[in-house]
Amino acid sequence: MSGGRRAGARTVLARGVAGAGRTLGLPVVLLAVWWVASADSTNIFLPPLRAIVEAFGQVWLSDTFVRDVVPSLWRLGVGYAAALVVGVGVGYVVGRWSVVRALTGPILAYFRVLPAPVMIPVLLVAVGIGDATKLIVIAMGALWPILLNTADGVRAVDDVQLETAAAYRLPAWTRHRLILRAATPQIFAGARQALGISIIVMVVSEMLMSTDGLGFTVIRFQRTFAIPQMWSGVLLLGALGFVLAKLFELVERRALRWHRGATGREESR
């Protein structure tokens, strides 16, 4: 029995190592190529990767992380969470009732193509330059993928499920839960898109109207010609986006385990 457990542990470890290799293999290779190709660079705007890594340690492994990265993550989390709550709620109503869908169709078609950063001048006048404006911009950018995917997912729920729930006279709240559960894969698809948009909008808003945060720090380095430090901020943004995407993937995998089982698409790793 203990031998079987050890064999199972080795299998899990081997899968973990293989998964890490697939995930990190190409980025490591690209960084190695960048390191070698830029080693002798004398271009002030394209410094050697060695100098960028040194600047990374000096800038971000200090109190700058708490002063600039933590506020950015807080804004990202609050804005994204607000978009998730509003997007799922409104998307459910739009997808569930055709009358609401017909009434809101033109408005949704208009706002879905309106870039969130274009609202920054309006919000600066109406709300001010504080965190509230940044949170609203982030939430607006992330809202539409979640709302529209939720509405599509709710509309696509199999009529047989709805008829079965009605035949069994299930309570209204239970029926709503069943519909939301069936739409969960589509909701997660929209939430995944919204996460990337939230990061982009967060950086843009901090570049234009902030005195702290990652976007502000990167643009400050650019304006003072601290080029290696600027590139270190770009690398940090990419790393944070990568980590957040992987964390989202873990949550999605666990939340949609039932869906993979129902469709026969079991996890391969």
From TrEMBL:
GO cellular component: plasma membrane
Keyword annotations: Cell membrane, Membrane, Transmembrane, Transmembrane helix, Transport
TM helices/strands, residue ranges: 12-37, 73-95, 107-129, 135-157, 178-205, 225-248
GO biological process: transmembrane transport
Database matches in Pfam families: BPD_transp_1
Domain ABC transmembrane type-1: 87-255
Membrane topology type: Multi-pass membrane protein
Protein name per its UniProtKB record: Nitrate ABC transporter permease
Species of origin: Polymorphospora rubra
Gene symbol of the encoding locus: ssuC_1
